[in-house]
Amino acid sequence: MAAIDVFSNVFDTLPLVKDASASGNLQVLKSLLGPAFRGMVLQRGKSEPLSSMPVDYSVTFDWNYLRNKPEFSRLYEAAKGSQWNATIDLDWTAPVDPLSDETALLPWDFLPVANLASFQKASPKERAEQRRGITAWLLSQSLHGEQGALHAACQVTEAVPWLDGKLYGSTQVVDEGRHVEVFHAYLTKKLEKRYDINDNLYVVIDALMSDRRWDMKFLGMQIMVEGLALGTFGMIQQMTKEPLLKQMLKYIITDEARHVHYGVLALKEFLRELTEKERREREDWAFEVSLFLRNRFFAHEFYDEYYGHVMTRAQWERTVLESEMMSRFRKTMFKRVVPNLKRIGLLTDRIKPRYAELGLLGFEHGRAAPELTATDLINDAD
Known about the structure:
- The chain is mainly alpha-helical and 382 residues long.
- It is 67% helix and 0% strand.
- The chain contains 17 helices and no strands.
- The protein has helices at residues 3-19, 26-41, 44-47, 70-81, 86-89, 117-121, 124-159, 163-191, 199-210, 214-239, 243-270, 276-295, 300-306, 313-321, 324-343, 352-357, 374-379.
- The longest helix has 36 residues, at 124-159.
- It is globular, with a radius of gyration of 20 Å.
């Protein structure tokens, strides 16, 4: 990468790093600096076909094969009975017209560009093409997140100390592989468009993959990333008129609900055993990761393709922040994440003011993952 590109990336990254170090927790900042440098400055998610992330964690074997976690056992049984085959359970022969209004991928008023004069003046075909682009961008980030979840699920299955947890973890590995399969197939065969991973998402995946502590992997993936995915998939599933996408997301939501439940079950017990210092680090880390996840919805990759020549990045970000898309994603993301953080003990009076500053504390009394079914998640997407 050219030196001028690196300098430009550093400049663009400074506001995000400042935003994501709001807690002042040096341990948390230290854990995020490496991933932020690799993802935002070096742009490894975009400049490399393959990324190698440093991994340092312990693998735990249970030679007693003790089955003493009935909640995990019940979740394991539910997962075994809920497996689906993407090849035969979804109708891939049905045509998908990304430019159709009758089977619209997304409603017009949801697009972040809906109120831009240049978009309104565009031809019907050009507007439909941008709707295809936004949908492809959203599903591309889902694809990248699912690959991160696939790797994280392998890691936590190795590292979690309870046999019942390992058995359930094995089903999540299968789930995540299937999710990578279906998102990739839909993007390449139906939309015929795929975007690179967003820098903010890369940072989160790098951070949780390279952390040696298994509970941080649970916190980052099962609670934060999977919680975000639940809200995103439920909202798109409700809005889309495209039959294959609607059915595909319904299946995926059922899997994701189990994954978040798994994280809550594991962490609510484990976090009680930590010292106050250790708990505070995880509390601050979750808050800062939530900012990275929020910032991923700026859709810079879509901006670079369609609007980089029309407006500055700062103007684009203001447009996105004021859009219906960001409003809905902000609501659905934290509507899922905040109650789960509270349930596992990471939404204390100490951290609440930071969420309040972002206008997110109102979600703390929402229903946490174990109290939600997949049907609840679809019907409650708004």
